[in-house]
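Check the record.
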Amino acid sequence: NIIQGIVVDKLSKEPVDFANISIKNSATGTTTDAKGRFNIAIEKEEQTIIVISHINYHKKEVVINDSMFSGNVTIYLSAKEFQLSGVVVSAGLYEQPLDKLTKPADLILHKDIVDNMNSNMADVLNKTPGFTQVWEYHSPIILRGLNSNRLIIMKDGNRRIGTFPGGYFGQDMNIYDSRQIEIVKGPGSVIYGSGAISGIINLVSAEPFDKNKNSVQLSGGYGSNNNEFLELIKICHKRENFGISLNGKYRKTGEMVYGNGEVAENSNVEDRDVSLNTGYKFSDEHKIIVNANYHYGNWGKPRGFNGPTKRFTKVRNEEENFHVDFAYCYKPKRFVESVNLNLYYDNGWRDYYQYKYSIVSGKLSTLDLVHYRNNYGGGRLYTILNVSKKNKLTTGIDGYLFRLDNPVELFDYYNDTYGHASGLKNAGQQNIGAFVSDEWQIGEKWQVVSGIRFDLASVIEGKKNEENGRNEKRKAISGNTGFVYSPNNTTHISLNIGRAFRMPTTEELFARIISCKGIKVGNPDLQPEYSWNFDIGIRGKALKQRLKYDFALFYNILDGFINEAPAKEVDFDFTLKNTDAMLMGGEFSIAYQFNKVFKPSNSLCLGTGAAYVYGIDLLNGKNAPLFGIPPFKLDAEIDYKGFINKKWITGYSIKFDMEYASPQNRVAKIPEGTDGGPWGYQPSDSHAVFNFAIGINSNSFLGFPKLRFMIKNIFNTNYQPFGSYIPAMGRNFKIILSFHF
């Protein structure tokens, strides 16, 4: 029996030439001709599925029925956009085309996370222009020179909070349990409140609903350098009105090896993650979705983690986190487009070790073991209104409550004594805010967005020595306005002006904090910090949409910037102070795709991205370098993909990429009385790292197996990343095999 047909582009209705067509779980296959036509011999069975693949289109499965044998079949494919494409929900709480945003944005798809066998959030963000990674694991996340105190990290729009002085690191969030990661750079306080100064990161889950679909996804990986094992499983049961998925991840590593051959003692990691995603549609208008996530991690600090002379090679850090969130959406599809309610709760703990060594003998003298326990919850209620066909208004209220305990165990090895300190109990902060954001389309070429927000916060010292501590109140007003001008369908020019803010936390106002950089005491006089953010960009496509580009510049004026300053008390290393600072810089990315390279079905993509930040600390001098500003960074890659009609292999890919960082010459001054801590005060030399990857996939075997082999740091380059005392991992061979049933 023969099926004849044509494969066409879903939008343009143009024929798709040289598409690969194969019978699922069979070696039988063919290819469309120059006019998109094909014919394939198929045995009539109870359920036969053909799979259509093309380098520039999303893969599609079609179930064969008897009617297809009697005439020509038309199959529609949806085009892929390899850059500057897709839809984001994070910028305005509803779906928006990426090209229409007034601020620069990026998308990272689930496929890219698995293909590269990324270990954590800092790892997966490292290739996106504007982000900087410090360590292999448990690294502060830095965007445009600001750490995650000034960057909001979310799961499905729900803010996550950490107990580290550098903000939320994201090591306890399973990056594999997401459909895509959305990044919006620039001020986001109008929608998301305190902390959205340099931008937001949102991990978006896949909806649990689909048309009668059951699936199992399995992946297993191995890394040679640190004897890493990665195991992933996802089980889905989806129906139109109900769905449930279970996601599990287990990762265990040994000690990594630096480029110079030295073993990094105590650098091994073990992570366990389990998540549940479920939902129910009462009708087309009403639906609820529930997510629950559990994480347990155990990781160590190699020598140099807390400074050049500190040898924490026996310290093991443990952490645990449980997160649950609930989302309800009502869509009447009239003047009120939707009413949405989000609720979430977090519970976690972690240990933090602070060792001190004798100046005379160099031996360990004391240990402060801090047990951080935190509870965190909040929610958002918002409504999207269709004021007119070209005017959309979003208004809502949100709030959260965070509580922290930090009891301490005290070990004095010199005097052989033991004690404990209660620390602070039920310290924390709560915040409530109200916002309104308006978006309207003016003609065919202009899109304008504006908004305003008011926040009221209360920062609580908690109980200390059984007495209630201080309670400080702070308030803030933020706003945003921007526009996108599109002179044609492929060119988009944007300008955005925003006033973002960050409330001081209880750790910054009241607490004694043991950090990597030393002992820090809070300052109860701290006020909210503000940032005037100016963003301008141009992005688009050219040369028959084969060339994609994105160019963004930013300038931030930081008023009341919360910065470190020398402490007056003898028992502390430093404190915090409101000061002023400035940041400026930009990101650039460009890619070009060559089609029909060597074979009609193959393509070659060349891409590069770069980022630069210049920061000025106005507290320590007119042109003093601001703490934590990374050097100029450049990434480049060559990616070749093709389809072949071999018996067992359907497609393959080959990729070379390179990471380059320039010398870091502008380094912040070390606070008095400290040794500078683990990063940010150490200038880094220039370095270039080269990587290679090759992958093959098959539609013939059960489960559509996909095999990917990578070499990270091909030349075993020995270097120290951005201001770190710890060298980076040396050459690492990785292999990952995935199945989708």
Observations:
- The helical segments are 110-115, 121-125, 189-192, 506-509.
- The chain has four helices and 45 strands.
- The first helix runs from residue 110 to 115.
